[in-house]
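B., you asked whether I could sanity-check this one before it goes into the benchmark set. Here's the sequence:
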Amino acid sequence: MQPVSFLLLLLSAPALCLPGLGVNIHTTAPAPGEAALIRSAGFSTVRMDLHWHDTETAPGVYDFSPYDRLVHALESQGIRPLLILNYGHPAYDSGRAPGTPAARAAFARWAAAAAARYKDRGILWEIYNEPNLAHFWRPKPDAEAYAALAEATATAIRAVAPRETIIGPASSGVDLAFLEECFKLGLLNHLDAVTVHPYRLDEPESVIGDYRRLRALVARYAPNGREIPIFCGEWGYSALWPGQNERLQALMLARMFLVNAAARIPLTIWYDWRNGGPDPANPENNYGLLSLQGAPKTAFQAASTLAREFQGYDFHMRLETGRSDEFILLFKSPRGVKLAAWSAPARPRSVTLPVSEGAFRVVTWLGAELPQAIAGPDGLTLPMNEEPVFLEPVGTNENLTAAASWDALPHTVIVEAPAQLALSTNLASGAYTVLRNGGGREVSLDLPLSGGKAWRQSAWLEVSNPLEITVTPALAQVSKPYGEAVEAVLEANGARTRIGLDSGASMVRLPLPENPRPAGAALLDANGGLIARTPETEFFPAGSPWAAQAVYDGEAAVPAAIGVSDSCPEGIGAAGCATLSAELGAGAKFVRLLPPQSSPPIPPGAVSLGGWIHGDGSGMILRLRFRDASGRTFQPAGAAVTWHGWRWIEMPIGGASARLVSWGGSGHGEPQGTLTADTLLLIDKPGPEAFRGRISISRLYWVRR
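And here's what the prediction gave me:
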């Protein structure tokens, strides 16, 4: 097949560029017209490897001439380079990751030479790529070694080019454990932004919780309270992943960029510009916006549509509908306002937006013009599904103008608890009581409009000195992830017990009286003031892992093996537990634990399925499935096993955190009528690669609060 002419493609492409969007490339010599085409597709930043082993030709001798050509080609189109300072060099540490003082010093000298050559040109300098993976940081990931390399490199760069922007660590996934290790070692003293690569098989909206947790972690360790942004340094979807194709890849791109805008991520890098190889059956070769020969794919069309529709617009706020899986994003510019609207997962519904009467131009995520939508006295009734539409009022819309003039809340509010939080903007304000276990939730403000309508916006609330209280069928658990020593009184089921956690302790567990039920707990300070509280909770047996039937699901050709044993680790969940060892081949494969057919329905009002799980830190995903009275099957988002040892976990059945997907049956929308368990535990892989994991599972309970 002949290569595609980028100059010819440019004739039909919009000359637009969005400041927060970037793309990964793998060449220092773009084809004629290619840099201009990258810009026309909406990308203002290009990420590219700057290889140490290619550019230090002898000790202390550097040849950056190929990058001179690349930087010139990008700058000529107004594109900012992001250069990744990576990997090893055969002259130092035998080509492994630079882990010795001598190799770190050589790496830092080389990085400083590059920065001095291109200083004051707006380049972003990223220190290494995915150092939390053994594939890139050989022989194995080492947070201490990476933090030392970052400190040496940043110090050397700032000595010769003090105004450069330095970012990192470009972790694979949002690896909070690795990132926190680096932050504890002072990494944030040397970075201007934190970069992560939040790849996932799930839909893009599932990243929101990861960003919230990472933002709280950055705030905890940032020096002197400095606000350090998070960049999405690399993220893409292969068109050949299980369940994907070129159209769905394009849809993931559109929603990924929009979700990152809503999460106030200043820079998003899509991986990849071109397909990475000639094999049409290899997922690793099929991340591109273009084919290997340069032919545009559907994802290129999606990126170009975003560029055309939102050129000159800034994201202002997410307008809440009361559901976490509905997205109404408001963008504004001097020319007016636009909305991006979709729902996720794929559960079609209609939403009535409290806009003023009038007409709206409607454009699909791939750029097709739809008939105008007309808002009546009650607002605009908008059909929504997983495919975003972009809406622009024809003329002035008073209610949307009001929303655009409303100051946006910060994405995240962090307070020291207990406290009274005053939430205030130019047009609305409110107050919240925040306890030490009161973080991890949204706080909202309403903007009243005429006719009894209102807009709502929210911020995510985190507590800087959190305490966690967990009530389980047999005990109350108080844990302290961070912070100072705690002396308090635990009040549970009418009994009071004084507890103490010193600065090094993290957890205390106390047995609960058998009666009364339901169980509840509160923490009080020395003066009887409320520190933290849990609602009254009831537990109903859901099943034993021994009574469940293990079955394989997914692609039949993918190999799988599972072992079940009664050999369980000692600890709180050991009684009646089972240990499951799973080996799943590459591809779509998972294991389902089916409840006995005689199992009773899920109790009315139950909010979650809970149990003690002994984790192996593998990232294995645990999910639940249930059916409603219409026969429709629902699957909540589940939990990733990122911990080691026993932990009480709960998988929500409904509400904002469940992020339900559903299929089949005669119903639609929310679960209807009596609910029954379809799968007590679904054991899934964290990615498409082959996987091995081992967990122990205690008795499971339906939880009602």
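One thing to flag: The chain has five domains: 6-310, 317-405, 412-463, 468-535, 544-704. Otherwise nothing jumped out at me.
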